[in-house]
Amino acid sequence: MPKYMLIMRGTDESNAAMMASIEDGIARTRLFIEEMMKAGVLLAAEGLDDPGRGVVVDFSGEAPVVTDGPYGETKELFGGYFLLDVASKPEAVEWAKRVPAVTGSKIEVRRVAGEDEVPQVSGQI
């Protein structure tokens, strides 16, 4: 079965709304995770730390440049993900529609490339 990643993306506004009712959001997310576990589709789920604590390594010049967060020009931030093992993209989309997200959030659904789709170099992974 293919794997799909449900990528949680938010804005400053949606992240603030989420933090305003964090206890309720955590409880709803736990129930959602339990539903996915009972259905046997959940492989992993992780949330990310505050973007202000991260860094960006930029390869647009000759040498990589490291910049501390927060990221001034970013309109949407990747906040976490659910990794699912489902039969099809439509099934992944149905799960994405059930994510307990706040208004203004988005869930991006992307198929994870299979091992057979990644070019292999002789003698290397």
Report on the architecture of this protein.
The protein is built from 3 helices and 6 strands; from the N terminus they run E-H-H-E-E-E-E-H-E. With 125 residues, the protein is of the alpha+beta class. It has a 4-stranded antiparallel sheet. Strands 3-4 form a two-stranded antiparallel ribbon. A hairpin with a 6-residue loop joins strand 3 (55-58) and strand 4 (65-68).
- Based on helices, strands and strand pairing, what is the structural class? alpha+beta
Beta-strand segment tally: 6
Order of helices and strands: EHHEEEEHE
Could you report the average pLDDT, rounded to the nearest whole number?
87
Helix content bin:
25-40%
Spatial order of the strands forming the largest sheet: 2-5-1-6
Which spans have pLDDT < 50 for at least 5 consecutive residues? none
Please describe the biggest sheet, giving its number of strands, its sense, and whether it closes into a barrel: 4 strands, antiparallel
Question: Distance N terminus to C terminus?
Answer: 22 Å
Question: What's the shape?
Answer: flat
Strand content: 25-35%
Radius of gyration, in angstroms, nearest whole number: 17 Å
Structure annotation, total helices: 3
